[in-house]
Specification:
Elements (H helix, E strand, L loop, with lengths): L1 H19 L14 H14 L1 H4 L14 H7 L4 H11 L10 H14 L11 H4 L9
Helix pairs in contact: 2-6, 5-6
Length: 137
């Protein structure tokens, strides 16, 4: 019975994939960031980002950061991928000038504007690795 010999290997493979799979936070989950982070991020965004990305994240000279174009470009990526881009390349006039906490606040604001829910725990760089960018409800 070859099937019975294969079951332990299949089970081990399933367990390994569960351990190494990035789980996405969704609109029904506990939230990816705090409301205070998003509020602080909104202020930073208005001062540092809106000239290129627009007040409503609609994109002006920079890409859209909320809506279908944003989702089309970033869907399937992690919030950490976006965090890394913000940290290293933004704002365009002074790349890399945002402090790590400011980057997470701006990222929280972008997630909020894309309908990710606020929660009780702050978004951290480690937590951003577990947040998949997917269309929220």
């Amino acid at each position: 019975m070859k099937v019975s010999r294969a079951l332990p290997a299949i089970a081990l493979g399933l367990i390994a994939s569960a351990v190494f799979t990035t789980h996405s936070l969704s609109a029904q989950s506990g939230g990816a960031y705090t409301a205070d982070q998003a509020k602080a991020g909104a202020a930073i965004f208005a001062a540092q980002c809106s000239v290129c990305h627009g007040q409503k994240l609609e994109g002006i000279s920079g890409p859209q950061l909320a809506g279908p174009d944003f989702m089309g470009k970033w869907s399937g990526e992690t919030a950490d991928d976006l965090r890394d881009l913000i940290a290293s390349q933004m704002p365009l006039t002074n790349p890399g000038s945002l402090k790590p906490a400011e980057v997470l606040q701006v990222l929280s604001y972008i997630l909020q504007q894309n309908k990710y829910p606020a929660g009780d725990s702050a978004l951290t760089a480690a937590k951003a690795k577990t947040v998949k960018i997917v269309k929220q409800g």
